[in-house]
Design goal:
The complex is a heterodimer of chains A (about 120) and B (about 210). Chain A is of the alpha/beta class. Chain A is about 45% helix and about 20% strand. Chain B has one domain: CheC-like (Chemotaxis protein chec, 3-Layer(aba) Sandwich). In chain B, strands 1, 2, 3, 4, 5, 6, 7 and 8 form an eight-stranded antiparallel β-sheet that branches. The chains are: A alpha/beta (about 120), B alpha+beta (about 210). Chains A and B meet through α1 of A and α1 and α4 of B.
Chain lengths: ~120, ~210
C-alpha cells in the first residue's frame, strides 16, 4: 500500500486523538502529523508535504478557513477537508468556494475513511 | 414576564430550539454511542441569580462543570453545556472508550469536555443560524467548574439582579448515567433582537 501523509489540524488534543485512532486503524502504514493551530499547520505542511489535510474551523489564531485557503494555494494537489462542529451553511459554502471538502464533527468513521480513500469530503 | 415574548414567538422559539437541540443530541448520541433523551425547552425571563438557583436545583446543588461559548449575531449571549461533576468522567469514558486507563481519562477530562461542548454547542448554534437564515459567530469554548452562580457569572451576560432570557433543556444518556443541561442566556436587549429575528422568521414562513 502506498504510504500517504495526513495532516490533522485541531486545537483540541482529544479531537486529534480520535481522528488519529481511526486513521491508524484503517491505514497502519500512513504517516499522521498533528498541528494545534493554523500557523503551526502552515509550517508543518512545508516540511511534511501532506497528501490529505483534515482542518478544524474554530481555532485560536488565523482559524481553519483562512489556513485551508492558504494550503489550497500552496499545495494544489493536497486533498483538503474541513472537519468541524461549525455546521453553518456559510461555512459549508466557504468550503465549496475554496474547493475543499466539508466533514462534520463528530465524524462518522465510514465518511472519514471514504474521504481518505476517494478524496471526497462531503457529509 | 410572559408579555416580553408573544405566544406565537414563544412557540416558534421552542420549535427552533427543538430542532437545534435535536441535532446537538444526535451529535452527543454519536459520541457516546447511545440514545439521548431530551425535555421540551423551557423559556423564562428571570434574574441571573434566579437562573443560577434553577441550575443548582437541576444539579442537586452539587458542583457542576460547564463548557461555555459566547455567541454574536444581531443578538448575543452565552450558550452553556452543564454537567453535574459526578457525570463528567462517565461522559468522557463513554466518548473515549473503556480501554483508556483511569489516570489518562482524568488527565484528558477537561480537554474532552471542551471538545464535547464544542461539538454540541456548535451543532445547536449552527442549526439555529441555518433555520433563521443568519450567521452566528462564536468564541472558542471555555471550561468552568462550580455552582450555578459561578457558572452563569463567568459569562458575558448580566449581573445577578439583571433580567435575562434563560432557555434550558435537560438531556440524559440513561444507559451511561450521564445527564446534563443546555442553556442559552441573553440579556433583555439581546432577547428583544432575538425575538425580532424570530418574528422575521415567522413572517417568511407565512409568505410561503
Amino acid at each position: 500500500m502506498t504510504v500517504k501523509t495526513v495532516l490533522l489540524v485541531d486545537d483540541s488534543r482529544v479531537a486529534r486523538m480520535m481522528a488519529r485512532a481511526s486513521i491508524v486503524k484503517a491505514f497502519p502504514s500512513w504517516l499522521v502529523m498533528e498541528a494545534a493551530s493554523g500557523e503551526e499547520a502552515l509550517t508543518l505542511a512545508t516540511s511534511c508535504q501532506p497528501d490529505f489535510v483534515l482542518m478544524d474551523v474554530n481555532m485560536p489564531g488565523m482559524g481553519g478557513v483562512a489556513t485551508a485557503r492558504q494550503l489550497r494555494q500552496t499545495f494544489p494537489s493536497a486533498v483538503i477537508t474541513l472537519l468541524t462542529a461549525n455546521i453553518q451553511d456559510s461555512i459549508r459554502q466557504e468550503a465549496e468556494e475554496i474547493g475543499i471538502g466539508f466533514l462534520t464533527k463528530p465524524f462518522r468513521e465510514e465518511l472519514l475513511l471514504q474521504f481518505l480513500r476517494s478524496g471526497s469530503g462531503v457529509s | 414576564m410572559s408579555d416580553l415574548i408573544g405566544e406565537l414567538e414563544r412557540d416558534a422559539v421552542t420549535e427552533l430550539l427543538n430542532v437545534a437541540i435535536g441535532l446537538a443530541a444526535s451529535s452527543l448520541s454519536q459520541l457516546v454511542r447511545d440514545e439521548v433523551r431530551l425535555t421540551v425547552p423551557r423559556i423564562e425571563f428571570l434574574a441571573s441569580a434566579a437562573a443560577a438557583a434553577l441550575l443548582d436545583k437541576a444539579t442537586g446543588r452539587a458542583e457542576s462543570v460547564a463548557v461555555r461559548q459566547n455567541f454574536r449575531s444581531a443578538f448575543s449571549g452565552d450558550i452553556l453545556l452543564v454537567f453535574p461533576e459526578r457525570s463528567s468522567l462517565d461522559l468522557v469514558r463513554s466518548m473515549m472508550g473503556d480501554d483508556i486507563p483511569l489516570d489518562t481519562l482524568t488527565e484528558l477530562e477537561q480537554e474532552a469536555l471542551l471538545e464535547v461542548g464544542n461539538i454540541i454547542l456548535n451543532a445547536c448554534l449552527g442549526s439555529l443560524a441555518n433555520q433563521l437564515g443568519i450567521g452566528i459567530e462564536s468564541s472558542l469554548p471555555s471550561y468552568v467548574r462550580g455552582r450555578g452562580a459561578r457558572i452563569l457569572g463567568s459569562g458575558s451576560v448580566g449581573t445577578a439582579s439583571e433580567l435575562i432570557m434563560f432557555l434550558q433543556v435537560d438531556f440524559a444518556v440513561t444507559a451511561k448515567n450521564v445527564q446534563g443541561y443546555l442553556a442559552f442566556v441573553m440579556d433583555i436587549v439581546s432577547a428583544g433582537q432575538f425575538t425580532k429575528a424570530i418574528t422575521a422568521y415567522l413572517d417568511r414562513l407565512m409568505e410561503r
